[in-house]
Amino acid sequence: MEAAGVEKQAPKFYEEVTSKLGGETMTKCYQCGTCASSCPVAKITTRFNPRVVIKNAIAGNRGHIVVDEPIWLCCSCYNCQERCPQGVEIAEIIYALRNIALREGHSPKAFIDMALNLMTQGRVVPTSSFTMKRRETFGLPPLKETGVETLNKILSATSFKKAVEKAKEGVQ
Ligand code: SF4
Ligand code: SF4
Q1: C-alpha 88 – ligand 2 centre gap (Å)
Q2: Which residue segment(s) compose the domain that 60 sits in?
Q3: pLDDT at position 63, please?
Q4: Is the model's pLDDT at 97 over the cut of 90?
Q5: Residues 114 and 82 in one domain
Q6: Do 95 and 141 lie in a common domain?
Q7: Is the CB of residue 17 below 6 angstroms from any atom belonging to ligand 2?
Q8: Using an 8 Å Cβ cutoff, are 47 and 88 in contact?
Q9: What is the count of structural domains for the chain?
Q10: Of 55-59, 80-84, 86-90, where does mean pLDDT reach its minimum?
Q11: Which of 84, 97, 133, 135 has the most Cβ atoms closer than 10 angstroms to its Cβ?
């Protein structure tokens, strides 16, 4: 039983990640590097390496992962996850780490802009009269309404909007 007046300790970063969807697979990583050699992003920049991301997550290097930008460089291609011999759900772990970072107010401006587009227009990439005309040129039908009101109810219920507002303050 907790002593009165003693604050409950914040969960350790490791536990925070492993409690998220796919995060529990992180413990199976034995640092073979197959993910890094399969990653198209790691091929073009030394700033991002999925093996190192997993290593830091296991080690509980919260500050490095949450505040620094590398986790936002993943393009969600799932190459790593397809090839990991241990069944580590690397892309899902990166989503979990991004969720933790966003809730703490850390996200690159480009991602916040996309989230704001989603909240206001129901689309990550905004449309313009130019793109609508181009669609006509290619014989494509007009885009359907996005149901942005319903979407916003979901985004509010999941605290997504709150997290984006917090992150937005951080980059201003
Ligand atoms: S491929 Fe899997 S086991 Fe190997 S380093 Fe990457 S996550 Fe760990
Ligand atoms: S999902 Fe992300 S980490 Fe995995 S290979 Fe693709 S870009 Fe790299």
Answers
A1: 12
A2: 13-103
A3: 84
A4: yes
A5: no
A6: no
A7: no
A8: no
A9: 2
A10: 55-59
A11: 97
Report the distance separating Cα 121 and Cα 159, nearest Å: 18
Of 13, 165, 156, whose CA–CA distance to 102 is shortest?
165
Give the mutation target among 17, 51, 53 for probing the ligand 1 site: most ligand atoms within 8 A of CB: 51
Cut 0.85: pTM above it: no
The alpha carbon of 126 and the centre of ligand 1 are apart by a number of angstroms equal to: 37
Report yes or no on 5 lying in a domain. Answer: no
Sign of the Cα pseudo-torsion (91, 95, 97, 101, in order): positive
Whether 93 and 116 map to the same domain: the answer is no
Same domain, 85 and 130: no
Under 8 Å between Cβ of 134 and 98: no
For residue 10, pLDDT beyond 50: no
pLDDT digit string (tens) for 16-72?
Answer: 888 888 888 999 999 999 999 999 999 999 999 999 999 999 888 888 888 877 999
What letter does residue 86 receive in the DSSP assignment? T
State the pLDDT at residue 166. 85
